[in-house]
Design a protein that fits this description.
The chain is an alpha+beta fold. 49% of the residues lie in helices and 14% in strands. The protein contains 3 helices and 3 strands. The protein has a 3-stranded mixed sheet with strand order 1-2-3. It starts with a helix and ends with a helix.
Length: 126
């Protein structure tokens, strides 16, 4: 992944761990103190949101642990690699510019395609 994507995931992980999770935990503790938990919407939905946060935290922790950060600025050469900006020509005219990025950075509106996508795989090594 690119350094920008890595920083984005680190920021999301820190926000969930340090801000959202403690807030939800307080709501659950407050709701649990109100008595009957079976009909307590704050408790039920708080627990559901806590499970979602914990699941996302596990996903982000694994993704960050396994991440290989590649700076596109340092990429050069004649072959298309991860992080490259590729201009696809059609009949000697510029047709489209693509950015080969990781799965967490895909944005079709900005022409950011995953290296695992069909077009990304077709461009790699060319």
């Amino acid at each position: 992944m690119t350094p920008a994507c890595h920083q984005k995931l680190v920021n999301e992980h820190n926000h969930l761990r340090n801000k959202e999770r403690p807030e939800i935990t307080k709501v659950i503790q407050w709701a649990a103190g109100n008595g009957d938990r079976s009909e307590n919407a704050d408790y039920i939905y708080g627990k559901k949101r806590l499970r979602e946060i914990d699941s996302r935290l596990r996903f982000l922790a694994k993704r960050l642990k396994d991440a290989v950060v590649v700076d596109p600025v340092t990429i050069s050469g004649e072959h298309v690699k991860f992080g490259a900006t590729v201009e696809v020509l059609e009949n000697e005219k510029l047709s489209k510019t693509y950015f080969i990025v990781g799965q967490d950075e895909i944005d079709p509106q900005l022409n950011k395609v995953s290296w695992k996508s069909p077009i990304g795989r077709a461009l790699l090594g060319k």
